[in-house]
Design brief:
Helix 1 runs antiparallel to helix 2. Helices cover 34% and strands 20% of the residues. By secondary structure, the protein is an alpha+beta fold. Strand 2 (33-39) and strand 3 (44-50) form a beta hairpin. It has helices at 78-103, 109-124; strands spanning 16-19, 33-39, 44-50, 60-63, 68-70. The chain is elongated. The N and C termini lie far apart (45 Å). A five-stranded antiparallel beta sheet has the order 4-3-2-1-5, with no helix packed on it.
Amino acid sequence: MLGSGKTLSSFKVGDKVTVRAPSDRPLFHHGSHGTIVTIGTKRVHVRMDKAAFENHDGEVANFLPDDLDFGHVGTPRNSDRVNDAFTAMKLAAGADLVAVALDAGVITAEQGEQIKAAWATHLQS
């Protein structure tokens, strides 16, 4: 496996990081957001600020440098990822319905945009 070239010296205490698919750690950390608390001789020690699973928040785990990305990237919680996927599916269904109604001449383009906006607002509440 080719590494990204990150070394322990690439990091400093207090850096915000996102855990990639860990090479030798449990996959349940994948996507977690954390803060570097210490740097060991081979690993970076990260406190999970917003772990992929809520019950791991606050936990400290250690990772190889190549298992980390700088900054908080993406949606960390698995439950949020599932919710995002369902919301995208519901938005797509609404857009498909509007497209069918437009093709059938049942609504105007302006009405279609209003329906899509109302549907998006409904899904947020």
